Amino acid sequence: MNGDGTAAPRLRLTYRDAVREAIRDALTRDERVFLMGEDVGRYGGCYAVSKGLLAEFGEDRIRDTPLSESAFVGAGIGAALNGMRPIVEVMTVNFSLLALDQIVNNAATIPHMSGGQFAVPLVIRMATGSGRQLAAQHSHSLEGWYAHIPGLKILAPATLEDARGMLWTAIEDPNPVLIFENVQLYDMEGELPADAGPVDITRAAIRREGKHASVVTFGGSVPKAVAAAETLAGEGVDVEVVDLRSLRPLDDATIMASVAKTHRVLVVDEGWRSGGLSAEVSARINEQVFYELDAPVARLAGVEVPIPYPKHLEDASVPQADTIAAALREMVGRR
Amino acid sequence: MTGTDEKVHLTREHCLDLLRQMVRIRRFEEKCAELYSGQKIRGFLHLYIGEEAVAAGTMQALKPDDAVVATYREHGHALARGLAMGPVMAEMYGKVNGASRGRGGSMHIFDRGKRFLGGNAIVGGGLPLAVGLALADKMQGRDRVTACFFGEGAVAEGEFHESLNLAALWKLPVLFLCENNLYAMGTALDRSESQTDIHLKAASYNLPSRQVDGMDVVAVEGAAREAAASVRRGAGPFFLEFRTYRFRAHSMFDAQLYREKEEVEQWKENDPIPRFADWAQQADLLHPADKEAIEASVQAELAEAVAFAEAGAWEPVEDLQKFVTMDEVPA
Ligand SMILES: Cc1ncc(C[n+]2csc(CCOP(=O)(O)OP(=O)(O)O)c2C)c(N)n1
User: How many domains does chain B divide into?
Assistant: First the structure.
C-alpha cells in the first residue's frame, strides 16, 4: 500500500529480474555494499542476473574477479570483517566447493573462535539445482551440506517476493548468509508490487493451505509441490505446501504446526536422500510431533546419482510435480 | 618505535626495544614448552623459537590501525603486535580471560583492538582474508596496510596463488610476509617446490618481491619498512621472503626424523637474539647490563602472565554456543 492508501502498481517480472532489483536496491541503500564474482560485470552474470549493473554502479562496486573461488570468497569474508557488506556471487554451488575452506573454516568459525570479537556480515549468492541439462558438474543441490554448518545461515528463495526481499535482510544480518537460487526459477514470471521490499528470513511460509496432508519443501521444488497440490485438489485431496525458505536455522514451529493440522507429511528435497536435508526435517518431525502423525513421515528426494545430461534422465533424477503427486496419493491412500 | 618511517633508526632505545621483543617471545615460548609438559597447555603447540627476528622486525613497520593475519605459529606475532602477555598465555590455557575467551587456544589468537585477526590453522587460509581486509581499506579510502604472515608450505597451496594474483591485479595494500623456515612439518622445501626461490615465484605475479635474511632483525625491519612504505604509497602489494629456521620441533608431536642435528646446530649459531645483542654491544648501542635488565623484566612479565592464566576461569558450559551466530556486528 502507498501512503495515500492506494495499492502500489504491480510489475510483471521474472525471478531473475527480482534478484537484480534486490541487488540494485542494496547497492543504492548502502555504500558499503558491492557485488563481486566471476563475470558479474562485463558479461552480466552467467545467469544474466547482474546484467546492466556495471553501467549503473561502476567497476568498483560490480567487480569481475579472476577464476579463484577461494580467493574472492575469502576476500569477501575479509572485506566483511573490515566494514564492508559484500555480496559475493559464485556461479554455481558446484564451484563453491573450491571455496569451502573459506566458507566453512573462516566465515563460519571466526565469530565464535574469536570469542565474539568479529562478525562476518557477508552474503554469498549461488545458483543451485538441475533442470538445464548441464550434467553432473553443474546441477547439484548441496544446500543440505551447507545447512549442516553452525555459524552459517542458509536461504532458499522460491518466490519472486523472496527473490526480491531476502537479500537486503540477509545483508543486514551480522552473520554469513548463503542464498541459493535454483536455476529452474530464474525464468519464472509473475507480478510484484512496485514497492516490494525486504522480507523476513526466519520463518517458513505456507504457500498453499490444506488439511489432508503437508508437503514440506524448498527452492525449486516449491512450484512443483504447489502444482502437485493443485492436481490433488481435483481428486478431492487438500494438500498444504510448506516452503522452508530458511534451511538454517529451520523454522520448526511452522513445520510442526502444519503436521499437527494435517497429520501426514511428505518431505521433498531435490538434494540426495542419504544424510540430506529431508532426513533432518523428517527426524525433527518424528522427534517433536510423532504422536500427531497418522502415517510415517514420507520422503521424496533426489535419486542418488550424479545428475546426467539427457533430459529424460535428468528429469527422473529429481522430484517432479507428477512424482510428488504420486507420493502424496500413496500417502493419503493409507488413510 | 613503530610507524611509517622508511628507514630504521638504530637509537639505543630502539635497540633495547628490538632485543626486548625477541627475548619476550623466546622466554614466552620456552615457558609454553614447559607448561605443555606440565599439561597446562594441551592440543597443538607450535613454537616460534629461532624465528623471533621476523615478528619483532616486521611489526616495527606497522601502525596501530594496520591489520595482522597470522598462522597457527603466531604467539610471537601476537606478542610483537602488542597484545598483553597475560591474555595470550590465558588463551594457551583455554581460559575465558584469554585473548579469544580461550576458545581458540594456541592456534587462534584474536584481538580486535590490536587488529590481530588470527591465528589461522589452515595452511594458506589466511591469505584470502588478508586480501579482503585490504580490499575494504582500499574501497573506503583508508590508509592502512594488512600484513599477512604464512610459512613457505603455504606457497604450494592454491590459495597462495589466487591471493597474490588478486592482490596484485587490484593493487591492494597487502604486505605478504613469507616465513621460509625451510620445512613444512617434515617436508623440506626442495622436496615440495619446483622453484625453491620463493620470492621469484611471487614476483611472477607482478609485484615487488625480495628475499631477506630472517635471522637479522635489523635487516628484517629495514625490508619491512621499505615494503610497507611502498604499499602505503599505493603501489599495491609487496612480498617479502624471510629466510629463517625453527630451532624446535614443528609441534610437540614431532621426532624430527627429517633433518640432521648438525643442521639445527649450524642454524643455532645464527640465533637472531645473540646475533643482534652482540652486534649492538659492539656498536656501543647496548651495554652488557641491558641484557640482564631485559631478562629480569621479561621474567617478571612472564610470571605475571602465568599467574593471570592460572587465575582465569573456565568459560561456563552454558556459554558454549554463544557467538556461533552474532546478534550484531561489533562496533
Ligand atoms: C590445508 C592444510 N593442510 C595441512 C595442514 C597440516 N599442517 C599444519 S602445519 C603444516 C606445515 C606448514 O608449513 P609452513 O607453511 O612452512 O609453516 P611452518 O609450520 O613451517 O611455520 C602442515 C602440513 C594444515 N594445517 N592445513
Answer: 1
Q: What is the pLDDT of residues A226-276, one digit of tens each?
A: 999 999 999 999 999 999 999 999 999 999 999 999 999 999 999 999 999
Distance between CA atoms of residues B223 and B242, nearest Å: 10
B326 lies in some domain:
no
Handedness of CA A68, A69, A74, A75 (dihedral sign): positive
CATH number at residue B288: 3.40.50.970
**Is it the case that residue A3 has pLDDT exceeding 80?**
no
CA distance B213 to chain A (A): 29
Give domain status of residue B195, yes or no.
yes
Interface predicted TM-score (ipTM) over 0.85: yes
- Ligand 1 pocket mutation pick from B77, B148, B185 by most atoms within 8 angstroms of CB: B185
Could you give all domains of chain A from N- to C-terminal order, each with its CATH number?
Answer: 10-193 (3.40.50.970), 205-332 (3.40.50.920)
Does some domain include residue B317? Answer: no
Question: From the candidates A21, A69, A161, A270, which is the catalytic residue?
Answer: A69
pLDDT digits (tens, 9 = 90+) for A72-131: 999 999 999 999 999 999 999 999 999 999 999 999 999 999 999 999 999 999 999 999
The pLDDT value recorded for residue A5 is: 66
Pocket test for ligand 1, best of B54, B123, B152, B155 (most atoms within 8 A of CB): B123
Q: Indicate if A312 belongs to the active site.
A: no
- d(CA B185, ligand 1 centre) in Å: 6
Tens-digit pLDDT profile for residues B26-51: 999 999 999 999 999 999 999 999 99
B293: containing domain: 12-307
Ramachandran assignment for A79, one of left (phi > 0), alpha (psi -120 to 50 degrees), beta (any other): alpha
Rg (CA), chain A: 20
Closest CB to A70 among B104, B135, B158: B158
| Grid cell locating A15 | 525471478
Q: Could you tell me if residue B313 is inside a domain?
A: no
Separation of CA B70 and ligand 1 centre (Å): 12
The alpha carbon of residue B320 is apart from the nearest alpha carbon of chain A, in Å, by 9
Exposed / middle / buried, residue B53 (Cβ in 10 Å: 0-12, 13-18, 19+): buried
